Amino acid sequence: xxxxxxxxxxxxxxxxxxxxxxxxxxxxxxxxxxxxxxxxxxxxxxxxxxxxxxxxxxxxxxxxxxxxxxxxxxxxxxxxxxxxxxxxxxxxxxxxxxxxxxxxxxxxxxxxxxxxxxxxxxxxxxxxxxxxxxxxxxxxxxxxxxxxxxxxxxxxxxxxxxxxxxxxxxxxxxxxxxxxxxxxxxxxxxxxxxxxxxxxxxxxxxxxxxxxxxxxxxxxxxxxxxxxxxxxxxxxxxxxxxxxxxxxxxxxxxxxxxxxxxxxxxxxxxxxxxxxxxxxxxxxxxxxx
Length: 289
Hints:
Largest sheet: 10 strands, antiparallel
Number of strands: 10
Strand content: 15-25%
Order of helices and strands: HHHEEEEEEEEEE
Shape: globular
Radius of gyration: 24 Å
Oligomer: single chain
Distance between the termini: 38 Å
């Protein structure tokens, strides 16, 4: 949906108000939950002291109430996260509109690096329900074969350089032509200001969500996996080896980049965010395990 500047501002404000109310509701629900949990703890202490369960129905009721508290809190948190994602979508839509209108803001390289880091750190975290598997484009989970990246999405793009060499670069989708099966993408590096028209096999969408290592470790690349990773402080992807996995939702991968200047053939361990670690592809754009 296209928003004018005033409409976008109004929509964002409305969602911020709703988010504010939800945060207060979450706080109130958490306090109620803590009250019931304290009651359960006291009931167990009494049972231990008396060495008998009495009255049993009371303990069962307390546990039932605690479960209901947790479910209400989960529902409120999910609603709050939905509002956050809606705000992100509106802001991204306005940015795309400005770019299409020729008002693309020039970003200095230092600011660009900070923006890319922030984008990775604030990428939505997948929080599934018990037994629910992480979806495509969450962490290392590949996209579905029919998936088409949307305008504004970040991708890795295989492009030719000035000397005809091919490199995977960080780019942003401008459009997709369903008739030709080709993407139009912009190099994210402001110094290049290049636009490329590429086939689908030369474009790899970046993850849309982070995987939580504590609950969805299978959505991460295993140790010693060969991957493509964004070299720190650059906008290019290079072949690398996963040396260590993130142990929490806020941590990064530790990777070893191919580097013949070192005796081992690899660089020292370097941190790379989940968003910028992708399945390895060859120069023709074919994926490899």
